[in-house]
Amino acid sequence: MENRKHHGVRGQGPKRKFHKPAPKANPEDYVFGNQSVLELLRSEKDVEKVLVHKDSNHEEIETLARKRKVFIQRVPSERLNRITGKNHQGVIAFVSAVNYAMLSNVVADAFEKGKTPLILILDRITDVRNFGAISRTAEACGADAIVIPTRGAAQINSDAMKTSSGALSFIPVCKENDLTVAVDGLQNSGFRVIGCTEKTSDIYSNHDLTGPIAIVMGSEEDGISDSLIRKCDMLGQMPMLGQVGSLNVSVAAGVMLYEVIRQRG
Predict the structure, then answer these.
(1) For the segment 226-235, what is each residue's pLDDT rounded down to a tens digit?
(2) Of all helices (H) and strands (E), which one includes residue 8?
(3) 151-160 residue pLDDT tens
(4) Rounded to two decimals, what is the model's pTM?
(5) In whole angstroms, what is the distance from residue 209 CA to residue 227 CA?
(6) What 3-state DSSP class applies to 5?
(7) CA spacing 20 to 30 A to 253: which of 60, 99, 120, 128?
(8) Measured between alpha carbons, how far is 114 from 117 in angstroms, rounded to an integer?
């Protein structure tokens, strides 16, 4: 079935929401139980997040997770039981399918190689398949990194890896606690930041995208957050000439990325 989620460039018609059950986690994407989660957090593997039963006490796990800056979420037992029917002991940790990179290192490396960097910032893209498809296009377009927030982003799991057709093995992914701070850092490094949004009358292709560029794509539900829009150097919308009021976010990201390639020749 076609994915009709919005990417933040929408028409004026009424917004329709499509609700579907959350996909069941694959066993290879998580570990459960006190000792298993502790061992995971002590390892060098990157951890997406830790789910802890809202009424339980896992002090050692939570302390270690905070030290590693891993997102901790307190949830009811029903949420844990939906993930696994085994004895989870009130704690489940999700393993990342990639090793995260530091954005500052990626930028420095690109400049050292004499490249004109291209960074893609995804503001709360939550659909795993959208994220995988975007990653595939970003890697094909030579993007230097994908930046996601610590909270509210799609889990980078085996489904994301599969949808990306392996592209996530080649393109760096950077996780940032605050995307506005990440944008500040990029701008201080000479980047111009363009937000893809309907909250402008400017057409995306009218902007100069030949220098170091960071593209911001917004949430499927409500687009780019206002705080991030205010940080952008420029905003661009995509003309919608038909009856459908929006594009899928992965399609829109592809349009933006290939516009950069077109302008750079």
Answers:
(1) 999 999 999 9
(2) none
(3) 889 888 888 9
(4) 0.82
(5) 22
(6) coil
(7) 99
(8) 9
